[in-house]
Amino acid sequence: MLVQSSLSEVLKARSELFSRTNWTDPTSQLQNRVKGEDLSKYFVLTESEEIGIRETIRLHVSTTPYYLSLSDPIDPNCPIRRMIVPRSEEAVFSSEESPDPLDEERLSPVRGLTHMYPNRVLLFSNHSCSVYCRHCMRGRKVSSSDERMEKSDLENAFAYIRTHEEIEDVVISGGDPLNLSDSRLEWILSELHSIPHVKICRLGTRNPVTLPFRITEALCKIIETYNDDKLSIFCNTQFNHPKECTKESKEAILRLLKVGVSVGNQSVLLKGINDEEEVMLTLHKKLLEMRVRAYYLYDPELIPGSRGFRTPLARGIEIVEYMRGKIGGMGIPQFVNDLPGGGGKITIAPNWYLGYYPKTRQHAFRSAVTKKIHLSFEPVGSNKESYYPTISDSEWEKFGL
Ligand code: SF4
């Protein structure tokens, strides 16, 4: 039953929740998660949010007290709140949307495993998360108990990897693999470690953002055991807004770095949350301060109810263009589109390269710093001149060089 709470009731409920949670204990954080209609006790809801909570059927609604504490109880435009609380747009589906826009199920030879690229696979280890992000592109998996991965499913997945010697790289995702117990995660890592041709393991987790206390010393010890000469373990996480870059998150990242796990960030470009140039620049500056390298900026997928989050494709290009020259290259994400229908990822970059002018053997570039056109010569005797888009005489003249 959805109740409308006043601000004083919301503040009181928050204070009670925060004091009954053993703050740095991940189990207590998970036990005290706020779910479904209970969100109405912790926010002064708008009409759109009320509809969103009542009518959302695609994806669970849940947040840890820690992540809730980063959100604003009154302002509906708070970026953290927008990632926690569904809005009415989320309940509206359109025909161009799909629960599985990347065709992951079609590319799944055994349950819970997607094999799209020749040398790497995506393993769905579990279907639960600490917080259910409203923009999640795997809502079909994380919200369905039918998607639960049993031990036998994982054994079948390992058997598949074992018999496919071309697989060198395993991405473990879900759900969130760090929502598994330590013992289950240890078993998964030990299995992968024992497969001779698997050299790389990537953990996809949002826990450094939504429940940083889950990155415990004990967990790091397990990871350290298997992160050796034989297997390199990486972690990719998803910070989407500077408000998420807290002291607690930084400490969690440092614990991972200390056991030799390098951490990359995969943001999602989200309308009204981080689709402003300065927000994205600040986020990536803070991430570098936390020693997290930029990896991807995703164009959001066409999942059901995604209209509230999707921006024009141009926004991602403009933002990356803005960032160039204002932060070191390791702080600039690659803007990517994971092509619908299982086409894999492609990067979409600003148009810095303008083309080749054969008469002078020169390439023309647009500079991110000077905003002017700069030229560079193709080597004498090159046999690649036909490779480049050609600049016509009239275009060349327009440059006014
Ligand atoms: S943590 Fe990842 S898998 Fe889980 S809801 Fe968020 S985006 Fe989806």
From TrEMBL:
Binding site for [4Fe-4S] cluster: C129, C133, C136
Gene3D superfamilies per the UniProt record, alphabetical: Aldolase class I (3.20.20.70)
Coiled-coil zones: none
Annotated family: Belongs to the radical SAM superfamily. KamA family.
S-adenosyl-L-methionine keyword on record: yes
Keyword Protein biosynthesis attributed: no
Pfam family, one: Radical_SAM
Organism: Leptospira terpstrae serovar Hualin str. LT 11-33 = ATCC 700639
Residues covered by the Radical SAM core domain: 114-333
Domain of life: Bacteria
GO MF annotations in UniProt: 4 iron, 4 sulfur cluster binding; isomerase activity; metal ion binding
Cofactor or coenzyme needed: [4Fe-4S] cluster; pyridoxal 5'-phosphate
This protein's UniProt keywords: 4Fe-4S, Iron, Iron-sulfur, Isomerase, Metal-binding, Pyridoxal phosphate, S-adenosyl-L-methionine
InterPro entries in the record: Aldolase_TIM, LAM_C_dom, Lys_aminomutase/Glu_NH3_mut, rSAM, rSAM_sf
PANTHER family reported for this sequence: L-LYSINE 2,3-AMINOMUTASE (PTHR30538:SF1), LYSINE 2,3-AMINOMUTASE-RELATED (PTHR30538)
Name recorded for this polypeptide: KamA family protein
Modified sites of kind N6-(pyridoxal phosphate)lysine: K345
